What we know:
This protein is mostly helical. The chain has helices at 2-15, 27-35, 43-50, 65-73, 85-92, 94-104, 115-126, 132-137, 144-155, 159-162, 180-188, 200-207, 227-240, and strands at 77-78, 82-83, 191-192, 197-198. Residues 1-22 form the signal peptide.
Amino acid sequence: MQMRxxxxxxxxxxxxxxxxxxxxxxxxxxxxxxxxxYGGLTAEIAERLERxxxxxxxxxxxxxxTRCYLSGMFDFYSNLTGFNKAGIVEVFGSSVYEACRHKxxxxxxxxxxxxxxxxxxxxxxxxxxxxxFTLIENxxxxxxxxxxxxxxxxxxxxxxxxxxxxLFADYPVNEPxxxxTRCFVDKLHIFEEKTRLWKLxxxxxxxxVPAKGxxxxxxxxxxxxxxxxxxxxxxTCYTLAD
Length: 242
């Protein structure tokens, strides 16, 4: 029973990171070996592992677990050399690596990868799943210029607002991050201020909307409570048009 539970914990850890990531053999043995000094896979330990993504950035709740787990499970990490850039990029993508670079790169003077280095690097990766930069990088039909514009616009937003970025996918009535749409639209020059009309061909080129053949005749007439809200309402109309 304990071995089976170990497999389930490993499965949860891996699938929460990347659905396409194949599990290595002997993951149950690896989990149990890494926690044997803490009494094995008790209910308390299992509960802690399930909260791995919520652990504090600088505090590993099960000391040295991550270093042991990674070295026994994945090719992208070694106790001697730390994280392998090519391996991280292959599994999680370049945007995740760049976002966590400061945690993943090993300071030369440290020698072998430490428990702290392993934990902070991997913990950063696990929390990149819904990071705005990761979501932007994975958007289909979006030009590199549009992705850069969106990232630039996030830089001027308070970090506390970044967690709301994921809400854009549901197209709520009110813009999750006020004025974000206006910001990246202005950077892409796809709205003509003088005529108050959208440059639809440029919009299609950069953002992949509106779709061909949809009815968008009334989108430019949408109005919000202010200019930013109007940008958002009109752009949402073009995006959802059928």
